[in-house]
Amino acid sequence: MPEKVVVIGAGPCGLAQLQAFARAKEKGADIPEVVCYEKQDEWGGLWNYNWRVGLDAYGEANHGSMYRYLWSNGPKECLEFADYGFEEHFGKPIPSFPPRAVLADYILGRAKQSGVRKWIKFATVVRDVSFDKSTKKFSVVTETLGDHIRHEETCDYVVVASGHFSVPNIPSFEGIETFSGRVMHAHDFREAREFTGRHVLIVGGSYSAEDIGLQIMKYGAASVTTCFRTQAMGFKWPKNMDERELLTRINQKTVHFKDGSKKDFDAIILCTGYQHHFPFLRDDLKLRTHNRLYPPKLYKGVAWRDCPQLFYLGMQDQFYTFSMFDLQAWYARDVILGRIQIPDAKTMDADIAEWVAREEKLADPEQQIDFQADYLRDIIPQVDYPKFDVDSTVDSFKRWEHDKVDNILEYRNKAFPSSLTGTMAPVHHTPWWKEMDDSLECFLKN
Question: pTM for the full model?
Answer without folding.
Answer: 0.96
